[in-house]
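Example record

The entry below shows one chain as it appears in the dataset: sequence first, then structure tokens.
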Amino acid sequence: MASDATQQRYLDVLMERVRQDRYPSHQLLDRIEAALYTSEQVADYAELLLVKIDESWYPSGQLLNRMQRVLAFVARAGA
């Protein structure tokens, strides 16, 4: 079983790839979502999505849908 540090490093590598890619693949975003374990990681991912959405005048529907899912997840978790 991977340690917390290894899991965090894996997530950091994936998120950095998304930061550097103008149009990140849905496979990469799916892997990030599958690797989220903590509320801090979810918050970091939400911030990453917001940055990607803000970078484009016409953000993709994929990114907008993912952001809505993250917000819904956070809302359910906080309830």
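Notes for this example: The two ends are 31 Å apart (CA to CA). The mean pLDDT is 91.
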